[in-house]
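Annex B.
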Amino acid sequence: MSKEYPHQIALLGLGTIGLSMLAMHLRRPDTSITVYDPRPDTETQIRTNLPSILEFTASATASGSETNIVDHLFKISRLKLAPTLQEAVTKATIIQEQSPEVTVSKQALWKEVMRFAKHDAHLWSSSSGIAASAQGATCDPADGVGERLLVAHPFNPPHIMPLVEVVPGPETAVERVEFVKGYFGGIPGPGSVDGQTGAHYRPVTLHKEVPGFVGNRLAFALLREACSLVGEGVVSARDLDAIVTASVGPRWAGSGVFESYHAGGGEGGIGAFLQKLEPTIQDVWDDLGQIGIQGDQAWREMVVRQTEEAYGPSTAESRKKKEEMLREVIEMQKKTWAS
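L-gulonate 3-dehydrogenase: predicted structure tokens.
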């Protein structure tokens, strides 16, 4: 017998991120999710992949004795498949899209959504770099899209990684921002029972819209310099990874950029650090690689070849091992979050 859930979510798009977001939403016991994706294999994708990323918990299954979690979710109507966009969004209190990273595609999707959505529904995009103001630019202002639409950008994979970048547009209402922060802040972490667990997700609000937001800008800046160093023959791809995992990786996992250098400055903090190392920092900044991904392809070929030689193909088994490592690192981090 089905019941009404406070949060009725329409999840639009079930690629890698969408499937992981589905698992994330299901961790809250007060949610039901309707999935819409025009691909014919959507149900197969769910049945094949969801059980491996959604833990068998009481909050997810509503019964410790269930052996087929997907059948059970369908049976109690916590999980539904919608044949049309209209059916997916009409009753939704939250609409979250995971469509391709193409501005015009997202604009077209939101225009279609607004034909059927409730006037007070929360509108979220999982975009990794396209601002909410750009996505809603072609919608009718009378629909209030500007006040309701924001980016809730998870870091991949969302069912494990704690970060959610909340990026409102210039017109997004403050209460909409507070709602999304409270929603994600209330999602239990992996392995929870009956939704009882400490804080796992860390929603962070950005004060301005910038391409790529913050997490990806930092990651892509490091990626560019890494590609430049390998392309220039300074270091191999494998050794560059060894340098990262043996130096800044462990440090930043526990402290972050500014806190780490603040500690590195001793009694004078980050101010002293910047003063002491100013010549070296400036020399490095002036010499950073300026490669372009659409320019000379020699560095790209070298990076791809060396990475593939070092690590071989990416397999389900290798990805699982990395996810297990991520879980362990995040559990270690949680010990410092409350302090």
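Residues 56-66 have pLDDT under 50 and may be disordered. The first helix runs from residue 16 to 26. Further annotation is deferred to the next reporting cycle.
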